[in-house]
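Action item from last meeting closed. Structure (357 res):
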């Protein structure tokens, strides 16, 4: 067990109205902190009142973006208990990201202890309205105070919690997507597979352009040939062509290995669908569309779970997918995954972890 020092506050904040939470706008009463010092390792795990951080302006993270983050959720089940969805997957990914960014690894069981302990302390903040959850944001920042460029010798691991609303309050509406041909999100050999703030800073301009043109998100193509599909916005992407489910392979290193992506693949295979993980070009999607074989397209991620694509704007042509409606496979995935996450369906895969034993 990770040895955690508790410094709890009695000054509890007023909880927001569960029907109007939005995403990432409210934060709970406490946060988890743990320091790293070279030679000493990770130390001083503590849960303290949620508060501002005080950092020297020369702190490395502000200048060179040596930072990583994760995102997962805690769900309130019908019996009132609270559970996590495959947290060990997020922790494995956290350490792969750490490795890429020269951030020291965290013992996976310590990371899980930290998440569970913090959610247990602020358990009252896990909302219970349908579709609502408690978003968990672990992140690590480089804290050396100096401007030379090399990996920091000190770090701060922080976990904050945010009650979040239902992503689909007015039902699932398929979104319009812009196929981006100028900007790229990631390249082979870069940080595309790692969950780092820098990837997001780099992708904002594409997102802004798509929004200004009236689209919800960008379809990112590979950074070398601008031909193969990588992701949609900050989600993994799936296409259903002629009854087969196809998602881009992780082999390029430019795609974030989503926990939702992996879960959709396992679930679909267990239901008897053919799922191919391979390179998929935008031209193949367009050809399938013209042949009347593009059945469905959707994004996957922790926030929305499944986000159907109703239209793809491919510069000279607008492809309307499944008449702009959610498809059968997307709907099945959404119902099954959310059912397991909120404890409404039996967890036959053993994917959920209770916060308190
Ligand atoms: C987090 C993230 C995803 C989705 O991963 P999940 O584990 O399913 O939430 C997809 N793409 C990017 C770029 C991401 O940052």
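Sequence:
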């Amino acid at each position: 067990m990770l040895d955690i020092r508790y410094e709890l506050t009695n000054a509890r904040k007023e909880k927001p109205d569960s029907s109007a939470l939005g995403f990432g706008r409210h934060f709970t009463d406490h946060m988890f902190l743990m320091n790293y010092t070279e030679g000493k390792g990770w130390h001083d795990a503590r849960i303290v009142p949620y508060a501002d951080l005080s950092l020297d302006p020369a702190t490395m993270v502000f200048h060179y973006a040596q930072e990583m983050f994760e995102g997962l959720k805690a769900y309130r089940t019908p019996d009132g208990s609270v559970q996590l969805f495959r947290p060990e997957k997020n922790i494995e990914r956290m350490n792969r990201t750490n490795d890429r960014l020269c951030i020291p690894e965290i013992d996976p069981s310590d990371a899980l202890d930290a998440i569970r302990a913090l959610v247990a302390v602020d358990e009252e903040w896990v909302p219970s309205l349908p579709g609502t959850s408690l978003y968990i944001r672990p992140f690590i920042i480089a804290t050396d105070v100096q401007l030379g460029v090399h990996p920091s010798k000190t770090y701060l691991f922080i976990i904050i919690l945010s009650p979040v609303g239902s992503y689909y309050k007015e039902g699932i509406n398929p979104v319009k997507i812009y196929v981006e041909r100028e900007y790229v999100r990631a390249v082979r050999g870069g940080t595309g597979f790692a969950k780092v703030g820098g990837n997001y800073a780099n992708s904002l301009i594409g997102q802004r352009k798509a929004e200004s043109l009236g689209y919800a998100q960008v379809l990112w193509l590979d950074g070398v040939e601008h031909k193969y599909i990588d992701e949609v916005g900050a989600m993994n992407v799936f296409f259903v062509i002629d009854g087969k489910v196809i998602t881009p392979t992780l082999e390029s290193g430019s795609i974030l290995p989503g926990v939702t992506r992996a879960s959709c693949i396992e679930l679909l295979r267990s239901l008897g669908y053919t799922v191919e993980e391979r390179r998929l070009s935008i031209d193949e999607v367009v050809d399938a569309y013209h042949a009347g074989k593009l059945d469905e397209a959707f994004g996957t991620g922790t926030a929305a779970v499944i986000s159907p694509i109703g239209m793809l704007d491919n510069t000279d042509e607008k492809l309307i997918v499944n008449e702009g409606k959610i498809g059968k496979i997307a709907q099945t995935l959404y119902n099954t995954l959310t059912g397991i996450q909120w404890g409404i369906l039996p967890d036959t895969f053993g994917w959920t972890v209770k916060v308190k034993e």
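Note appended to the action item: Residues 242 and 291 are 10 Å apart (CA to CA).
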